[in-house]
Structures are given as structure tokens and as C-alpha cells.
Amino acid sequence: YTxxxxxxxxxxxxxxxxGTNSFHGSAYEFARNSAMDARxxxxxxxxxxxxxxxxxxxxxxxxxxxxxxxFFANYEGLRQSLTVPITTTVPDQNFRNGFLPCAETVGVxxxxxxxxxxxxxxxxxxxxxxxxxxxxGANLGNGxxxxxxxxDSPLFENYGVVRIDHNFxxxxxxxxxxxxxxxTLTAHPDPVLTDADSQRNQYLSVEERKVISPTILNVAHFGxxxxxxxxxxxxxxxxxxxxxxxxxxxxxxxxxSVVGGNDTAKELVNRFTWRxxxxxxxxxxxxxxxxxxVRHYIDADIPIVNGGDVFYDPLGPESSFQAFLQDQALxxxxxxxxxxxxxxxxxxTNLSPYIQDKFQVSRRFVVxxxxxxxxxxxxxxxxxxxxxxxxxxxxxGFTHVPRAFEHxxxxxxxxxxxxxxxxxFGNQKTSLRGGFGA
Length: 438
Hints:
Layout: E1 24-33, E2 51-65, E3 69-91, H1 93-96, E4 99-101, E5 110-111, E6 116-118, H2 126-131, E7 144-169, E8 172-190, E9 193-213, E10 216-233, E11 250-253, E12 259-260, E13 265-282, E14 285-301, E15 309-312, H3 320-325, E16 331-333, E17 343-360, E18 365-373, E19 375-376, E20 380-381, E21 386-388, E22 399-401, E23 414-423, E24 431-437
Parallel strand pairs: 11-15
Antiparallel strand pairs: 1-2, 2-3, 3-7, 4-6, 5-6, 7-8, 8-9, 9-10, 10-13, 11-12, 13-14, 14-17, 15-16, 17-18, 17-19, 17-20, 18-23, 21-22, 23-24
């Protein structure tokens, strides 16, 4: 990969079709469903679980002004309903009634006839215990059993793109494109958790290509990306741990599947890119010189533990099941009400000059040499709300800091590029290529 690309060597180029001097269009639909599916081995039903997927759309393009201005548009829709079996480890019926196998208890009288000990159910954890789905699979013999639940995750997506091309002259052209992608998904990470996910991505690109002379080309580009991600975990009131928080907590019992949790997250990203590249040919050298500026605006609200995490792990020889039924939690992690500000508005800028030379050493051998400098300003927070453990070993609290990093790690971000291509036998049938980048 050449110096006009930053990062770690992975680059994806996506091209949008342009219109022509004649009108052209297309329409399509792809459909799949479970009618011809075989039953999955883990499906809890006699036949395959329901599944349907429809992907449809169309394109249309043509001239606005002959030989001068053209348009192209595309729409694509996706409708999917996918049912997936999720297997969890849950309390068996005896566990739910407060009875555990004697081997799982300490200090509780064991009934030798049933092999069970009456631990009881603390009223404080009754709603958490009832939140576990009922067992419908194998009993594991230690007070737990399996539950397999078929959970449907409907997905709706609409995608559209419009591109306009205009030729000022045979040596000067301009294009602009706008893309929008809207999607919603109802997800079920487990049988008691429901996430309502939505995402809207918008992309705007404007580019001018100017042929200055037969050996000099300039390409000026502006890009804008707006990405809005919203994950909303629906409240299950039975799993409310922190009163007044309005966010369900997480119950962790060793030996049982985790129930509850909070995936709620909101992120709004606005990214502006300005780029200019001058390309010229000098003898056997094809040289690209460019400069790129990217300004990032990232607003995020991610309340990681605002709902509270409760951990039931035995403090002594008793099992975690007994600790759970008796509400003897080992630890609680959470954020006090009124101190749970999880909003962060980060700002930073990338500055990236680069130079790239494609050197035609001979008719059969080409060498690519390049150098890129990827500098990034130290991220700051709009409301100056950045805190960190400056010394994790000795610090007893967080320290207010002005920037994300104490020292800017990108100050010396030089990225060399070396590559070659060799026509081994000179007949354009066998080539050997290699490259290095940092």
C-alpha cells in the first residue's frame, strides 16, 4: 500500500457508478427463507426455526445535460427476521423454591431422603431469581438446568445513494455524492435482555479533478461523515438494582448464566476531511504529493455500570448458589446517583502530509517509495471533563487532566513505504510483488 493511505495496511476502495448520455436502470430482489432449510442440531423445535430475508432495490441514471452533467441513484432495502436459539444455564425448580443439593450448602440441615437442603429465598433476590427463564432442557444435577429459547431479531435497513457528475471542460471535472444508510435491529443477547438498536450513517463527498498539463494532475477532495449510533436496552423492572436509576442491573452468580445488563450507548460522530493531491510525471518517475486534514467530533454517552453489577461468589465454603439465595453478595460495582455523568465530547485533528514515487527502473521492474507523516492532536473534551489514574499503583482517586494523553504518541508517526513489482520473464504472464510499510 502506498503513502496516500494511512493506518495499518488495510484499505478498501468503493466506487459509485456515474450516469451516462443515455438513461439506464435496474431492479432486483433476493429472497431467502426457512422453507427449504434443514433443522439446526441445536434448534428446540422439531423443524427449522423461522427465517426470512428480502433484499431488494433498484438503480437509475442518465444525463441532466448531454456530455456535461449526469446523475445516478440507487436504493436498496433489507428486511430480515432471524430466529436464533440461545441456551443458558438457569436454576432448576428446586433451586427456585429455595432447595439446593446438600453438596452445594454449608450450615443448612440436609434432608437425606431428598438429598436437598432448605436454604430459603431471601425476599431481596426474589425478583432476580424469577427473572431467569424456566428450564426446558437437561437437569445438570447441581441445582441448575438448561433453557433454550428461540429469539427473533428483526432487522430493517434502507440504503440510498445519489451521485452527480459535471464536466467543466475536457480537463476539469467535478462530482458529488451523498449516501445514507438507516438500520434498526431488535437484538436479544440473552432471554431476559432486549436491545433496540438503530444506526444512521451519512456520507458526503465532493471531488474535483483538474488536468493542469499533460504531465500534471491535481485532485481536490472534501468528505463529510456523520454516524449516529443508538443502542437502548429496554428496562426489565425485575432486574432493577439501583433504585431510581431507571437502568436494569446485572446479576452474576457463579454457575448460572449472567442475567440483566445494560448495553445502552449513544454515539454521534462527525468527521470532516479535506485532501489535495498533486500528481506529476518526470521521466521514469510518477510522483504524488498530498496533504490530508481530518477533523473529528465524537460525542458519546455510554453508561457502563450505571445500573449496577452484583456479584454472588461465596465468602466461605458455601456455594455461590447458597450465597445468592441468602443474598450474601461478594461485591457490588456501580455509580452513585447524581455522579453518573457518562457523556464525553471528544475533539481532535489528523494532519497527514505524504509523498509517493513510482519509479520505473526498467521495462520489467517498478519500485514504489513513499513516506507519510500521520500526526494527531492530543484529544480534548469540550467541557474539560477528562480524568485519569496518573499513577495506577499509588493513586487513590482520579486526577483531572487537560488531554487524553500525557504525551502525544503521534509526534514521531513517520510511516515509510517500500514496494516493488517484477515481470519475471518479461512476457507479462508472471509477476512477483512485495512491499513493506510501517
